[in-house]
């Protein structure tokens, strides 16, 4: 029922995912601006692994009270079942498949290429007969969000110097520093840190960090790479906002803002998936963590 898609019918997973994001935007919902402080970060209930990249935003947009999900096979294994009328939600993953016709690499082994696949998961609210002792209790930890923001900045490996010389926010690629307006220029402290997170994500793209083409090549304003880099920075900043528990109250989902992204997604079905994967890598670097990818997952940057 919800095993990984192995149908002989070729499904366009990129289009499926992008259509879902477009549907949300057209309804006035920006999925990457939804916080998870009250519901927990979406994660698999059995493995306890948080979902990453585009999967995070897809599942977060569903508005469940608890962001706990499991596959059909996991549900059967613990004796649970799905409530009548409920449908699974798409989760994507990368699978390495042999090139056809077969090609060999430098070591004489068959070349492989990453292919986007999907399977479906169910939220615990859609299920019944799940043993209560298997459902982890959600404990909201009260923390000082501003201190959390400072902790991220202080612990980022090789964090660029942060200056306050000009009254505008930008990342200087050549000299590797971030300029920020003074904190008192912002109406609330959260807006200062949200803006800083945006610039920090930009800084991860430099050659000595992740070598992200959308920033290393210094793309011109309005170009496709420039738009990609801006979305990467926005997705990464949104993640860090939720991670620290801050909300940027200055963000307004204007019609022009939503329309600008709708135009991009409708013209390029890979755009949001690629940006989400690269934003996840940027966040992992900023948070100084190494996520263990499953054997079926590869980086979006490997896809041509």
List the helices and strands and how they pair.
Elements: H1 13-26, E1 43-44, H2 54-60, E2 68-71, H3 72-77, E3 81-82, E4 89-98, E5 112-123, E6 127-128, H4 145-155, E7 161-163, E8 170-172, E9 177-179, H5 189-203, H6 213-216, H7 224-244, H8 255-267, H9 271-286
Helix pairs in contact: 1-8, 5-7, 7-9
Question: Based on DSSP secondary structure assignment, what is the total number of beta strands?
Answer: 9
Percent helix, as a range, is 25-40%
Global structural class:
alpha/beta
Number of helices: 9
Strand order, biggest sheet?
1-2-5-4
Order of helices and strands: HEHEHEEEEHEEEHHHHH
| Straight-line N-to-C gap | 31 Å
What does the largest sheet look like? 4 strands, mixed
Low-confidence stretches: 5-9, 292-304
Report the C-alpha radius of gyration, rounded. Answer: 20 Å
What is the approximate shape? globular
Q: How many discrete domains?
A: 2
Instruction: Provide the residue-averaged pLDDT.
Output: 88
The proportion of strand residues reads 5-15%
């Amino acid at each position: 029922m919800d095993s990984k898609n192995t149908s002989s019918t070729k499904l366009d997973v990129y289009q499926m995912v992008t259509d879902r994001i477009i549907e949300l935007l057209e309804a006035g919902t920006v999925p990457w601006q939804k916080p998870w402080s009250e519901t927990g970060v979406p994660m698999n209930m059995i493995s306890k692994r948080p979902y990453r990249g585009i999967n995070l935003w897809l599942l977060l947009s569903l508005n469940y009270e608890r962001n706990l999900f499991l596959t059909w096979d996991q549900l059967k294994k613990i004796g649970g079942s799905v409530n009548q009328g409920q449908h699974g939600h798409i989760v994507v993953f990368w699978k390495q498949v042999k090139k056809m016709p077969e090609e060999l690499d430098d070591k004489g082994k068959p070349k492989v290429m990453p292919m986007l696949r999907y399977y479906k998961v169910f939220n615990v609210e859609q299920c019944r007969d799940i043993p209560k002792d298997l459902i982890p209790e959600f404990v909201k930890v009260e923390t000082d969000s501003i201190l959390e923001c400072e902790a991220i900045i202080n612990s980022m490996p090789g964090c660029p110097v942060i200056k306050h010389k000009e009254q505008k926010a930008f990342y200087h690629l050549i000299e590797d520093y971030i300029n920020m307006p003074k904190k008192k220029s912002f109406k609330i402290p959260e807006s200062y840190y949200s803006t800083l997170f945006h610039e920090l994500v930009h800084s991860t793209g430099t050659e000595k960090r992740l070598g992200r083409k959308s920033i290393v090549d210094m793309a011109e304003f309005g170009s496709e790479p420039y738009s990609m880099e801006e979305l990467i920075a926005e997705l990464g900043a949104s993640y860090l906002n939720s991670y620290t528990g801050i909300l940027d109250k200055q963000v307004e989902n204007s019609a022009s803002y939503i329309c600008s992204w709708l135009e991009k997604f409708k013209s390029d079905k890979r755009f949001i998936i690629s940006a989400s994967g690269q934003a996840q890598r940027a966040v992992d670097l900023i948070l100084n963590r190494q996520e263990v990818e499953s054997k079926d997952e590869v980086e979006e940057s490997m896809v041509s």
